[in-house]
Amino acid sequence: MYDHNGLYARMSAAMERYPGASLRILASGLRIHPHTAGTVIRRHSGMRFVEWRATRQAAVACALLRTRPDLSIKEIASAAGFSSTSVLDHFLRRTCGLSPSAFRQGGSVWPAEARQSTNSTAGQFRAADFRPLTKAD
Asked: Closest Cα partner for 75 from 64, 67, 62?
């Protein structure tokens, strides 16, 4: 039997190092079955792996967009685990309704509590923290 708290902490640390890792790669690196990894993530975060990874990637990307103007959008996409700038752009437009450049320039649709903690540990945000893109946007 696994220590789920310890395993979740190890998974979180691994995702900080490799933010775009798949469930299979994450589980393989920790020498556990992907089903076990998914179950631990679901129990601790209330999200499926893809949602959990996406919120962590979004938190990293948004924090870097705000705090590191010296980095290019391409560098930020890579650091946050996105496969390309177009994937980051699509993701932010879908979740926040803003392009990476617009987000960097100060546009925000995050709730006040999320805005105050963008430099805290990645992964504290849920998909519900982001306003979905609507046709009016």
From this structure: 64
